[in-house]
Write a structure and sequence with these properties.
With 68 residues, the chain is mainly β. It has no helices and five strands. It has a domain of 25 residues.
Amino acid sequence: MQASVGDHLHVHGRVVGEADHLGEIVEVRGAAGEPPYLIRYPDGRESLVYPGPDAVVEHEPRAMTDGL
């Protein structure tokens, strides 16, 4: 798993009815974009996360350059 600052970490609920968790990656502490990640949740909490198999990195769209 690789991520960059500004990407989002989406952790799916483990059981039916459990809400998913979504937070913004504000710091990548592993080498080459690997975990752990410092995540900021919408309520302002921050947490150091080592994502498991129930997590997906949602990459922020990167600006495209046309070479001009």
